[in-house]
Amino acid sequence: MTHACEAVKTRHKETSLIFPVLALVVLFLWGSSQSLPVVIGINILALIGILSSAFSVVRHADVLAHRLGEPYGSLILSLSVVILEVSLISALMATGDAAPTLMRDTLYSIIMIV
Q1: Which of 23, 68, 79, 114 could form a disulfide with 72 if both were Cys (CB 3.0 to 4.6 A apart)?
Q2: Are 45 and 23 in contact (CB under 8 A)?
Q3: How many CB atoms lie within 10 A of CB 9?
Q4: Which residues of 38-73 are buried (b: 16+ CB within 10 A; e: fewer)?
Q5: What residue ranges in the chain does DSSP mark as E strands?
Q6: Residue ranges per domain, the chain?
Q7: Distance CA 104, CA 4 (A)
Q8: pLDDT in tens, the chain (114 residues)
Q9: Cβ–Cβ < 8 Å for 19, 48
């Protein structure tokens, strides 16, 4: 009888924002440090933040795809993948270094995430 009164949870907790915000705070406080453990810690926090954000985007796109149905759902999933690719490629291009291997690895990582 208690099962009939339980509410169905349709909202997800947005815990994927914790790591990017934490990485920004750590970068702001210790970004000018030349210490190797600090640099490694900042990079690990940034990696976890990027991966959690990417998986969150894919999860939200998948929920929208299920809600909207077949023609629009496929378009939303495709658009989310394209936006992820463009954002990572533009971040690589903003650094100014020409690294075709890094560009190729970025595209493969997007394919593996999705």
Answers
A1: 68
A2: yes
A3: 7
A4: eeeebeebbebbbebbbeebbeebeeebeeeeeeeb
A5: none
A6: 16-113
A7: 52
A8: 455 555 545 566 777 778 778 878 888 888 788 888 888 888 888 888 888 887 887 788 788 888 888 788 778 777 877 787 777 777 777 776 666 777 777 777 777 766
A9: yes
Residues 2 and 31 sit within 8 Å (Cβ to Cβ): no
- The pair of three-digit structure tokens given for residue 7, joined into one six-digit string: 């509410």
Question: How far apart are alpha carbons 21 and 46 in whole angstroms?
Answer: 9
Q: What is the pLDDT of residue 2?
A: 52
- pLDDT value at residue 20: 79
The angle at the Cα of 25, spanning 97 to 109, to the nearest 5 degrees, equals 45
